[in-house]
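Each letter names a residue; the fold follows as C-alpha cells. Both lines appear below:
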Amino acid sequence: MQRLHLLVWQPRIWLAAHFGWRPRLVIFLAGLFSALSLAPLHIVPALMLGLWVMFAALDGARRADKPLRSAFLRGFVFAFGYFLAGMAWVVYAFLTRGEGLQYAAPFALPALAALMAVFWGLGAVIYCALAPRSVWRVLVFAAALAFAEWLRGHVLGGLPWNLPAYVWPAGGLVSQTASWFGVYGLSLLTLFVLTAPLVAVTPRLELGRCLPAFAALAISTIVLATGAIRLAASAPEDVPGVTIRLVQAGIPQTQKWAPGGAELTRDRYLSLTGREGIEAVTHVVWPEGALPSFMLEDGATLARIGESLDEGQVLLAGVNRRAADGNSVRYYNTLAALRFPSGTPRIAALYDKVRLTPFGEFTPLSGALAMTGIPALQELARYEFTPGPGADVLDIPGAPSMLPLVCYEAIFPDFVGSAETRAAWIYNLSNDAWFGPTSGPRQHFNQASYRSIETGLPMVRSAALGVSGVVDSLGRARVTLDPSAEGVRDVALPGRLGRTPYSFWGDSPFLAFCALVLAGMAWQRFRLSRAARHASMR
C-alpha cells in the first residue's frame, strides 16, 4: 500500500493542486501515451494510466478559480494528445494525394485532433459541473465522457474513430458486449472499469472508497463470462454454394495514378482474378476504387473481365461512376455487381456511397475555400462526389442478400442499422492505400469488425493496401490478407446469427443510462444549491 501511495497518491495530489503549463504538459503526454491502447498494439493499461491522470486533473480543476474553463482545457489537452498520436496516419494521406496538398499535412493532423478534442473538453465540463464529492463521481466521469463520444459520432455528420471501446480487439471476450450495448455502451463500461480503481487508492485503506473498484471488478467478471459463453456457442454453418475470391493487388496510390498506372492496375487485377481455381469461385471481390478509371464506361476492360469470368460468376467491384444531371455531371463512389452472360457485361446491382469522407470525397465549406484564391484549396473544393440516397440491402445473384458498406461507412453503427431490411452478410470495400504502412488500416479493420458483433452478420472485407479478409458473425477474423501483400484467397461465406439485442434497441439503453446519471446529478446539484440559498436567507 505504501508503494501505491508513492506511485499514485502523491502524483494525484500534485495534479489536483497545480495549474499552469506543467500539469498541462503531463496531461498532454498522458494522452499521447494512451494512444498505445489502440490497434494494432491494444496496450489497454496505457489508456488506464492516461485516464487516471485525466481523472485526477479534473478533480483538481474543480478547485480552480474558473473550474469549468480549467476542466475544458484539461480535457481538451488530454484528448488532443490522444488523437494526435492515434490519428497520425492522416498525414500520410495528404502526402500521397499530391495536388499541392502536401504543405497542408503538418496542419491537417493538429486541426483534426483539436476538433475531436473539443468533445472531450465538453465531457470534462459536464463532469466538473455535475460530479458529487463522493467516490461515485467516477460513474459521472464515465457517463460524461461516453456521452461526449456519442456526440462526437453524430454532430456535423460525426467521426466516431478510436472510441474507448476499440481498445479491445474485435472478436475477443470483451468485445462481445457490443452485441448488447454497442460500442458506445462498451465505451462507457471501459471508461468506468479502467478509472474506478483510482478512487480506492488512498494513504489509508477505506472500505467505502473501494466500492466503485468492487463494482468494476463485478462488471469485468460479467463481461468476461458472457463473452466466453457467446464465443463458446456453436458458430452457424457456412452458406452453401458460395465461394468468394478476395483479390489483393498491392499497388500503392502513387503507382496507380502515375502515367501508365491505369493499364498496370487493370492488368494486375485481371491476372489475379484469373488465377488457378477460378472455375470453383462464385463471386470475385475488388476493393473500393480498384481501377483509376470510369470502369463502367470502359468497354475494353469490361470485355477482358468477361473473358475471365463465366456466366454464373459475379464481380463485386468498387468503381467511380458519373451520371449526367441536366447540364452538369454528378460523380459517385459506387459498388457495382456485374454479371457477364455470354461475355456481355450486365449490371446486377448498384450502391452509391452515402457517408462521404470529408476532404477526400467532399469538402466542407467548399464555397469559402473556392474564394480564397489559393490554387490548391480551389482544386480541393472542386473535387466533389454526390452521396447516395441511403443504406440499402442488395440482392446479389448467387448469394444471400448483402449490406454494402463503402470505406468508412463501416465505422458508423447507426448507419449499419438504418437499412430497412436485414441482410445475410456485410461487404465492406475500402481503399486504405491512402494511409500506407501506418496504424490507420489496422484501426479501420478492427472498427469495421465490430459491426459484425453488433449485428450478428459476417463480413467480407476488401481493402486496397488495407486488411482484407473474412470476419465471422462474432467479429473473429477467419482469414486476413496482409495489407502489403499481393495475391488471392478463396473463402467460404460464414452464416449469420440471429438478431442481437443491440440490433433491436440500438443506443437507447446507453443514452437512457447517461441521461439518468447526468440528469440525476444535475437535479441533486440544483437541490443543494437551493437549500444553500435558503439557509443563507435565514
Q: What stands out?
A: The chain has three domains: 2-233+507-537, 243-354+389-503, 356-388. The mean pLDDT is 89. Residues 255 and 261 are 6 Å apart (CA to CA).
